[in-house]
Amino acid sequence: QLDALDASLSNVQSFSLKDMTMPYIYKPFFCTLLPMFMQQASAVCVILFYAQDIFKDAGTSISADDCTIIVGALQVVVLFIATVLTDRLGRKLLLIVSAAGSSASLALLGISFHLKATRGQEFLDSYGWLPLVAIGIYFIVYAIGLGPLPWVLLGEMIPLRARGFATGVCTAFLFGLAFLVTKEYDDLQILITPAGTYWMFAILLAGSLVLFIMFVPETKGKSLEEIELLFGKSDSSACLEAMDKDVEMTAK
């Protein structure tokens, strides 16, 4: 197996930017950028960094510290479940469930802020548990898909010769979005209210989910060659690449 791996790696062609014009390279590249965008559109950085403030501002009937501990414990448990489900149910299904659930949870959190602003103490007395439920559900569904699977798709979809470039761009894109979302969070709350902020994230995530369903294929059980064929790489182009490689080796 190691010999076969060494042989396959020795046949990997070098990457150049003009390769991005090839459908089986640029299509999976954009298909991996989309889940990265979905991850940050779910406002995960905001909820992680501002968890205690969110619980306090939303008026939950449980202390903010206790809510944060409960959410952290949920994350640990669900991560173990996610590792089992990924290979059994497939990446696409889990990401769809995760994104849909996260979007619904964000909408529910927005409703919590809206009810607190309009009903005040009446909301706290009757539905003070709602913010904890919303964020608890959010982290459960986030952990089974939006958290780990964008990185899994990056490793499975991108051809070997473009993987280094794609990984760098996707990582920069992800952390750039994370910085932008975190930086603008406070301003968004002032501009469109806390409820409007979470509804905005819910709508962004739901919209990107539609694109994900339409354009991103399932990769479960498929080899890299099969995935390349899904994105438009023909057998003839594969043969031409092999011939080019042979010519290069002969010239050397």
Automatic annotation (TrEMBL):
Subcellular location: Membrane
Keyword Cytoplasm (UniProt): no
Domain Major facilitator superfamily (MFS) profile stretches: 1-220
An annotated Gene Ontology molecular function: myo-inositol:proton symporter activity
Transmembrane segment boundaries: 24-49, 69-86, 93-115, 127-153, 165-182, 197-216
Keywords: Membrane, Sugar transport, Transmembrane, Transmembrane helix, Transport
Main location group: membrane
The keyword Transmembrane is annotated on this UniProt entry: yes
One of the Pfam families matching this protein, by short name: Sugar_tr
UniProt-listed InterPro entries: MFS_dom, MFS_sugar_transport-like, MFS_trans_sf, Myo-inositol_Transporter, Sugar/inositol_transpt
Membrane topology classification: Multi-pass membrane protein
Any single GO CC term annotated in Swiss-Prot or TrEMBL for this entry: apical plasma membrane
Protein name: Putative sugar transporter ixodes scapularis sugar transporter
Organism: Amblyomma triste (Neotropical tick)
